Prior knowledge:
The protein is an alpha+beta fold. The chain has helices at 15-21, 32-40, 96-101, 109-112, 123-133, and strands at 3-8, 24-26, 46-51, 57-70, 80-95, 118-121. The protein has a six-stranded mixed beta sheet. It starts with a strand and ends with a helix. The model has no long low-confidence stretch (mean pLDDT 97).
Amino acid sequence: MAYWLLxxxxxxxxxxxxxxxxxxxxxxxxxxxARNNLRAMKKGDLAFFYHxxxxxxxxxxxxxxxxxxxxxxxxxxxxxxxxxxxxKKLKKPVTLAQIKSDKRLQNxxxxxxxxxxxxxxxxxEWDFIIELAS
Length: 134
């Protein structure tokens, strides 16, 4: 299993909306590195759901329920989407400030590649963040 982080601006699509919808497709990615990460996702992988711009915190975990397919919001074949479903709301959100201040997370993509909307997370980073959320 691989781990990921997906960013969403809460005013566009929030964790609460995902819980209400029960599932959604993750579309609109127009960055090649992020697109490659979507293509690498496998059914059953888990991803942190991160509120960007407002909140700046990881609020939940989603499960990849359908692997990459043509992004339905564009006819350009270069872009893909995946389907996700809520897996678990975190007991305590983990803020960007917490992540930046934890030396164990100094190399996480959220800090190193802050503008990337779909990011890989190592299993060690995953475990550290889960610990911070407990």
